[in-house]
Amino acid sequence: MQYFVQQLINGLTLGSIYGLIAIGYTMVYGIIGMINFAHGDIFMVGAFTALIVFLILGALFYSVPVVVALLIMMIVAMLLTSLYNWTIEKVAYRPLRGSFRLAPLITAIGMSIVLSNFVQVTQGPRNKPIPPMVSKVYNIEGISVSLKQIIIVVVTALLLALFWYLVNRTSLGRAQRACEQDRKMAALLGIDVDRTISITFVMGAALAAVAGTLFLMYYGVIAFSDGFTPGVKAFTAAVLGGIGSLPGAVLGGLMIGFIESMWSAYFSIDYKDVAAFSILAIVLIFLPSGILGRPEVEKV
Amino acid sequence: MPGTASPERDIVATPVQRATREALYAGAIALGLFVLFIGLKTDQNISNELILVPRWPLLAAVIVLTMAGRFFYVAYGQPFLASQKVADIATGLLPDSVATRFFRLPYFIAAIAIVAVLALLAGSLDSLLGPGLAGYARFARALAIIYALASVLFYFRSFIHAHFSVLGIAALAVYPIIVVLVLALYSGSMAGGFQGSLKWVDNFGIQILIYVMLAWGLNIVVGLAGLLDLGYVAFYAVGAYAYALLGTHFGLSFWILLPAAGAMAAFWGVLLGFPVLRLRGDYLAIVTLAFGEIIRLVLINWREVTNGSAGISGIPKVSFFGLISFNVSDPNYIAKVFDIAQSGAYYKIFLYYLILGLCLLTAFVTIRLRRMPVGRAWEALREDEIACRSLGINTTTTKLTAFATGAMFGGFAGSFFAARQGFVSPESFIFLESAIILAIVVLGGMGSLVGIAVAAMVMIGGTEALRELDFLKQVFGPDFTPELYRMLLFGMAMVIVMVWKPRGFVGSREPTAFLKMRRAVSGSFTKEGHG
User: Fold this and answer.
1) CA B10 to chain centre
2) CB contact under 8 A, B290 and A281
3) Least CA distance to A235: which residue of chain B?
4) Which range among A127-141, A158-172, A238-252, B142-156 shows the weakest confidence by mean pLDDT?
5) Which range is the signal sequence, renumbered to this chain (chain B) (predicted)?
6) For the domain B163-468+501-525, what is the CATH code?
7) Candidates A49, A56, A112; nearest CB to B52
8) Rounded CA gap, B71 and A220, in Å?
9) How far apart are CA B382 and CA A241, in angstroms?
10) Is the Cβ–Cβ distance between B91 and A98 less than 8 Å?
11) Residue B487 forms beta bridges with which residues?
12) What is the predicted pLDDT for the residue at B518?
């Protein structure tokens, strides 16, 4: 039982990170119907930005309180990563809006290659380890919960609450939902569609940057190629939850996190990704539009 | 970037004013993007801790370049393109007016002269100019050759356009012969010709043709049937491992295992096809991606059979139907049979023709299938699934045949790949490969075989050509490795080509079914490809 709860906690931590990334996928998909393949690499850029900020802080000040350091890392990462996603949207996706479905997909894959190789060229191909930032571990009745895990879950929960408020209670969120339902109609009603889409990209990137910072803090290492696997898994999570649905993305992220930690705990660590992908395939066979996704109504 | 300035201000501002403003924006954005990534470099110090090394001059250079580029583009590039467009419409010579100015007879003669002079001096270039300048001279020679070839193509463009397929196949068929002959003349001996041809036949010829074949195979699934497959490389892997395992363990010949690998890949295609039949669009895409990853992870982790990440080596070579062998130790080794000097180049040239044959087979099958009921059903399915169903097309079998046929060609290409490398490992079958193949299909103009071949040649040939830029080391110092920039430039090229030509290189479609006459239609009229 203790072992199980322990795995549940590990899964929750992992799932939170996937959920944060998955939101970026699902929002972009919801609003312009495109798979933003570069999102995984945006996450990696976020983690790298956090790493560099961490090193700058270390070089400039003798010691910075961990909370302050984390906060600064997160904010800078959010800003700069958003700038990346905003630029990418302008350069690579906007000119292709209204073009056929696969064109933006290809530029997204191209951008993903560009981003990871850009980081490789500028920062070198090696793994970049940092000393552990937070190392406290609590022991509650034989279950060890590290402070890192608590930070991840709390930050994720806070951000999700903020995000939920943004989407459901502000005019910006209303504009986003309007664009999602019918872009042409939204434009007719005076919503600046281009701006709304840009903001969607910025928001997705900001969440991915937070996920990147948390990832860096949790694992203490990042490399230029680390964007792909979390990116694919987050995308899997978004699809599993029903792409286009925000609660679905979080739910899918948590599910993938649980599957992974349970599978590596009880079966084999080598095949944890195989398990996650297989379960995705099985779920989609029975629920072809994900768990919370709305089935596509097709009109003739 | 469009949309950064409001239109009212654009009318008032002169191009230069506008360009200055845009350049400032671009500079600010570039500063934000690059300040941490180019301005600072993370490096390990002696005690293995990460430290930051500032690179401010480089950052400044990059930002200034970005601003200058943006400035010149907005101030001179955009007005030039706009006026060009007007001129083109006025003269009715659409892309010709720039091109005719660019390709002129005097320039052509000058290019030939440069090539001739530099080729005559080839041996003494290093001593004459020193190694640094000689590198530039070789680069200039390569540019001149490309220019001369391009002008020849340009002058005969209408002829080439009319007979593209025949000319293309003929050119591919004589390519190794020409390479060997040219290099033999150059080096003065036949053996030298064969030795020098290795790079050209293997790195360029075979490499490009493998991708052509893969892209043509994927084209059946994506371009014809309209099913987005992001895990195509899985079938490539199945074919490669089928040949590698059966060939090394049971010693079966390539000619038996080629169809076997194709059949096995087709079987896996059906296996993948079954569960995903109900899925559409992007759900299908993610499941195929997951399938590709599952295959790769199994190859990595099932160590007893696949030898894990270490891969399988010592895969037997292909023989010429058992008559002529390419193993030096065999009694029927090609050099012994024909009594010629030993060289590894014979095998490469043989492989070149083998993959060319496989490519042509793929093209032939695709062209014929498009005229058969199943091919028509694929294209109908791509355009409208509901209409298909109401017309009585069995969508299940149609989708499954598309998956199986596409997978089969992937399997063929895979077993060829294993035979060519002599070594397979899961490293070769990562998602990036699937993405590259898909990109080639889309960049070529989905469904168009010629367009796809051109796209493969440009993208794969281009990245291979980037391996030849070693002389840049003299410019940027010995630490500079052009290799690193290959994939970066590849990704950029993908984005630029796609934005420039969203419909791919060949934007028009030739229908197979027509009422009175065959008439090509614009690709924009079809949903995702051929019409």
Assistant:
1) 40
2) yes
3) B286
4) B142-156
5) none
6) 1.10.3470
7) A56
8) 42
9) 27
10) no
11) none
12) 62
Q: What is the mean pLDDT of residues B246-269?
A: 90
Helix (H) or strand (E) run with residue B308 in it: none
The string of DSSP codes covering chain A is -HHHHHHHHHHHHHHHHHHHHHHHHHHHHHHH----TTHHHHHHHHHHHHHHHHHHHHHH-S---HHHHHHHHHHHHHHHHHHHHHHHIIIIIGGGTTS-THHHHHHHHHHHHHHHHHHHHHH-SS-EE---S---EEEETTEEEEHHHHHHHHHHHHHHHHHHHHHHHSHHHHHHHHHHH-HHHHHHTT--HHHHHHHHHHHHHHHHHHHHHHHHHHHSEE-GGGGHHHHHHHHHHHHHH-TT-HHHHHHHHHHHHHHHHHHHHHT-STTHHHHHHHHHHHHHHHSTT-SSPPPPP---
Q: Looking at chain A, which residue has its C-alpha nearest residue B291?
A: A277
All residues of chain A having their beta carbon less than 8 Å from the beta carbon of residue B389 are none
| Residues B79-132 pLDDT 10s | 877 777 776 666 555 555 566 667 777 777 887 787 777 766 666 666 666 666
Contact B322, B253 (CB under 8 A): yes
pLDDT band for position B18 (cuts 50, 70, 90): confident
The shortest C-alpha distance from B442 to chain A (Å) reads 7
Q: Of the candidates A35, A94, A123, which has its C-beta nearest B41's C-beta?
A: A123
Nearest to A284 among B38, B287, B499 (CB): B287
Count Cβ–Cβ pairs < 8 Å, chain A vs chain B: 187
- Is residue B439 within 8 angstroms of chain A, CB to CB? yes
Kindly tell me if the per-residue pLDDT of B332 is higher than 80: no
Residue ranges of chain B that CATH labels 1.10.3470 = 163-468+501-525
Question: Hey, is the C-beta of B388 within 8 angstroms of any chain A C-beta?
Answer: no
- pLDDT at position B142 over 90: no
**Who wins on pLDDT, B323 or B378?**
B378
Distances in Å between the alpha carbon of B304 and those of A234, A271, B38, B234, B311?
31, 15, 45, 20, 11
- Chain B nearest-CA distance from A240, in A, is 9
| Start-to-end C-alpha separation, chain B | 34
Give me the helices (H) in B188-280, please: 190-198, 207-219, 233-250, 254-276
User: Which is nearest to B87 in space by CA: B101, B75, B74?
Assistant: B101
To the nearest whole angstrom, how far is the Cα of B136 from the nearest Cα of chain A?
Answer: 24
Q: How confident is the model at residue B512 (pLDDT cuts 50, 70, 90)?
A: low
Q: What pTM does this model have?
A: 0.86
CA–CA distance, B247 with B316 (Å, rounded to integer): 6
Cα–Cα–Cα angle for B454, B457, B458, rounded to 5 degrees: 85
User: Under DSSP, is residue B261 helix (H, G, I), strand (E, B) or coil?
Assistant: helix
Confidence of residue B499 (pLDDT cuts 50, 70, 90): confident
Neighboring chain B residues of A284 at a CB cutoff of 8 Å? 275-276, 279, 283, 287
Query: B509 - beta bridge partners?
Result: B521
Question: Rounded distance, CA A106 to CA A100, Å?
Answer: 11
Comparing B154 with A259, which gets the higher pLDDT?
A: A259
Position B326 scores a pLDDT of: 77
Q: How far apart are CA A67 and CA A69, in angstroms?
A: 5
- Model pLDDT for residues A24-64, shown as the tens digit of each residue: 888 888 888 888 889 999 999 999 999 999 999 888 887 78
Q: Predicted confidence band at B520 (pLDDT cuts at 50, 70, 90)? A: low
CB B452 within 8 A of CB B200: no
Interface test mutation site (partner A, options B6, B288, B293, max chain A beta carbons within 10 A): B293
- B519 pLDDT band (50/70/90 cuts)? low
Mean pLDDT throughout A16-24? 92
- Supply the pLDDT for residue B529: 42
What is the nearest CA distance from B23 to chain A, expressed in angstroms?
15
